[in-house]
Amino acid sequence: MANADFSQNRNPTPGGFDAGSYREAKAAQTASPRLTPAQQKLAGLEQALPAALQSQAAAIALCVVILLAAFFGFGGAKLKAKASEAAQWYTAGVSADGGYSLNDELTTRANTAANIITTGSNTLGADNAEVLAAQDALTVFQNDLDGVNAGKTRLHALYEDDAALGAAIDQLYAKLQEQAADPMKMGAVQGQYGQFNSAATIIGNLTYNEQVSEYQKDTGGFPASVLKSLFGVKEVEPFA
Fold first, then answer.
1. How far apart (Å, rounded) are the C-alpha atoms in residues 192 and 184?
2. Which residue in 167, 150, 144, 169 sits closest to 239, CA to CA?
3. CA distance from start to end of the chain
4. How many other CB atoms sit within 10 Å of the CB of residue 212?
5. How many CB atoms lie within 10 A of CB 173?
6. What are the C-alpha distances in Å from 204 to residues 39, 129, 228?
7. How far apart, in whole angstroms, are the C-alpha atoms of residue 142 and residue 26?
8. CA 48, 52, 58, 63 torsion-angle sign
9. What pLDDT sits at residue 1?
10. How many angstroms from the chain centroid is the CA of residue 122?
11. For residues 120 and 153, what is the distance between their CA atoms, to the nearest angstrom?
């Protein structure tokens, strides 16, 4: 009698039922889908979030917060750059003004006024009423000019000082003309008086105030006004 072969058939008949292959196919169907590298990163970020932020509503709220932070950060940087440029208009001038600046012309007014007062003091006497009035006006003007340059005085105060200085110098020059042999030939003081008034004319023709007005319109509405408060941006004043 031949011996029976009970060894496992290693080559099952094709098409037959194979329990092992069935289990492997079933496991493949139920396994998690393979994630792309980008999806893996997002999944990692989600796992890193606190449990309270892993819900859809909380995630949306977090995205909104991030977007707002990015918006305000970018908008604030742009506003600060624009404010920095506007703050330089007083000293460096507006590009449309061809190199003239408000600070330079006001300084010219102060210097020429001082020269006219010196001539008036030498000609009329240091105790002359017009000389004293002009000197007082110049002192106030110079103090506020220094204050504006130091950021301690408002430009409006200097505007009023300039008007007062102009009136005082006009009166002093008129008094000097009374003492002159020829009021139309006043020598050096006439040239100083001409420069004093020329600076006033240049100031009147500057586009500084127009540029400041446009800047205030651009930064006065929402959200620029909010950003100005958040980032501590100082207001730019007109010369008026």
1. 14
2. 144
3. 127
4. 21
5. 22
6. 64, 29, 29
7. 92
8. negative
9. 46
10. 48
11. 29
Up-side HSE of residue 208: CA atoms within 13 Å toward CB? 25
CA proximity to 173, closest of 149, 148, 191, 198: 191
Rounded distance between C-alpha atoms, residue 158 and residue 37, angstroms: 65
* Tens of pLDDT, residues 28-84: 555 556 777 766 655 665 565 556 545 665 556 545 444 444 444 435 567 677 877
Tell me, letter by letter, the H, E, C secondary structure of the chain.
CCCCCCCCCCCCCCCCCCHHHHHHHHHHHHCCCCCCHHHHHHHHHHHHCCHHHCCHHHHHHHHHHHHHHHHHHHHHHHHHHHHHHHHCHHHHCCHHHCCCCHHHHHHHHHHHHHHHHHHHHHHHCCCCHHHHHHHHHHHHHHHHHHHHHCCCCCHHHHHHHHHHHHHHHHHHHHHHHHHCCCCCCCCHHHHHHHHHHHHHHHHHHCCHHHHHHHHHHHHHCCCHHHHHHHCCCCCCCCCC
Give dist(CA 175, CA 40) in Å, integer. 89
- Amino acid 68: pLDDT: 47
d(CA 128, CA 84): 46
